[in-house]
Amino acid sequence: MSPPRKSPPGVDPKLLIKDAAKLLPQSSRRMFLRGAVSLGALSALTGCDIIDGPTSENMLRKISTFNDWVQARLFSETTLAPEYPESAITRPFPFNAYYSPDEAPDIDGNSWQLEIGGLVDNRKPWTLAQLNALPEVSQITRHVCVEGWSAIGSWQGVRLSDFLKMIGADTTAKYVWFQCAEGYSTTIDMPTALHPQTQITLKFDHQILPRAYGFPIKIRMPTKLGFKNPKYVTAMYVQNNDAGGYWENQGYNWFSGQ
Amino acid sequence: MLPEAAASSRAQLPLIHPLWVRVTHWINALAIFMMIGSGWQIYDASPLFRFIHFPSAFALGEWLAGALLWHFAAMWLLVINGIVYVTLGIVTGRFRRKLFPIRLRDVIRDVTAALRGKLGHDDLSVYNAVQRLLYVGVILAGVVIVLSGLSIWKPVQLKYLTAFFGGYDFARYVHFFAMASIVGFLTVHIALALIVPKSLRAMIAGR
Fold first, then answer.
1. CB neighbourhood size of A134 (10 A)
2. From the list B43, B57, B62, which residue is nearest A37 (CB)?
3. Min distance A150 CA to chain B CA atoms (Å)
4. Which of A103, B68, B87, B114 matches a 20 to 30 Å C-alpha distance to B93?
5. Using a CB-CB distance cutoff of 8 angstroms, which residues of chain A are in contact with residue B155?
6. Pairwise CB contact (< 8 Å): A31 & B61
């Protein structure tokens, strides 16, 4: 991916370059193994495809599902992510996506609506003004990317658990699925949706959420890796089936909790 | 010597490595190999040092998602096998017998001898002071790499462990340097095993 042609104000181009290019698969969709010299030699030696083939992919996916289960057990609804002072905020906070910032959705906040669906009593869509009228919560927490880097940001918005209760969501359902304007999506577990720090984010550092960070809303969950924090969200569904997600479907661990 | 005679004379050699040591050793070798290969690929997605990039030819998992799947699969093998090894090492008294005491003057003596090429390996059942130091060191590096790894994986649920390692970002450096010391150990360890092949035989056949 070439460096972005134009950066939104306040975003350091240097930070933009390290965006999701590295997240993308290289040449082929056979993602797990080729390129390992020694293991490649091993499979050549044994003449079998245990290492570089569907056998290992299936095994790895099964263990990843097992790791989802382990992480759900490790997750505590009362354990809070550490919060930081304002001085710790990473400035500029990095833009991160699988596209360059000028390709990010450019949404008209006046016509945008949050579609609500699934196991919810009141499925009336929400406007930005209505969301902004709800009580605000704030957090300064660490965003950890699946790539390894981290950055501390300041987010304000509506506590998702309060919102789910207000719209009469069935909180005994297993999942909440988010759909985004550019086609991105992710599914999260209900315990994470109900975590006190999980937030419908409307502001970054007390300013209207910039386009680079997901205007008009992102879902902030400091208990999950960055890619599980969707931006440009257009729809939220409460449901019992796992609808997967953009990166999850390509092999990234589903739970990806912290 | 007839093969049978050779076999029987080997059988009379003292047992250097009991079966549990050999089994856990080779499982550990496989696990650490997978952890390092996948770890390098993960590192490359967000390098800590501008001048360190691991060639993808040595990496495990063709891209980040694959490397992460390998890393978080092999970790179970590494940790479960490591717990079995350390527990048996303590319970059977093998660690105490083989690895201790480590005296500074012995270390200095053996390092000097090693540098002069005069450190013998006649009796494989007794570790010299350099070996003791390196084996204890690599076990400790193993403990550090697992704990720092957990602190990177779960900086919220295990936030006190992460704080112990100096916070998320610092814990990544701890994890990296623990890996680097293990790789350093392996370089010496594998080189010596090839130079002294009977030590390799002992780790396979036990004698």
1. 16
2. B57
3. 7
4. B114
5. 82, 142, 144, 258
6. yes
Query: What tokens appear for A211 in the block?
Result: 């386009």
Are B153 and B107 contained in the same domain? yes
What is the extent of the structural domain holding B35? 20-75
Q: At A28, is the pLDDT very low, low, confident or very high (cuts 50, 70, 90)?
A: very low
Same domain as B99, residue B37: no
Chain B residue with minimum CA distance to A20? B45
Interchain CB contacts (distance < 8 Å): A and B: 118
Answer yes or no: is B38 within a domain.
yes
Residues B156, B189 share a domain: yes
pLDDT digits (tens, 9 = 90+) for A160-193: 999 999 999 999 999 999 999 999 999 999 999 9
pLDDT in the model for residue B10? 59
Q: What is the DSSP string of B151-207?
A: HHH-TTTTHHHHHHTTSHHHHHHHHHHHHHHHHHHHHHHHHHHHHSHHHHHHHHH--
Mutant choice from B34, B54, B56, B69 vs A, greatest count of A C-beta within 10 A:
B69
B156 and A23 within 8 Å at the Cβ level: the answer is no
CATH number of A78-250: 3.90.420.10
Query: Residues A51-102: pLDDT tens digits?
Result: 556 788 899 999 999 999 999 999 999 999 999 999 999 999 999 888 999 8
pLDDT digits (tens, 9 = 90+) for A93-104: 999 888 999 899
CB contacts, 8 Å: A38 with chain B: 33, 37, 58
C-beta separation of A203 from A156 below 8 A: yes
Cα–Cα dist A72/B55, whole Å: 35
Q: Which residues of B187-199 are buried (b: 16+ CB within 10 A; e: fewer)?
A: eebeebeeeeeeb
Cβ of B46 under 8 Å from any chain A Cβ? yes
The number of distinct structural domains making up chain B is 2
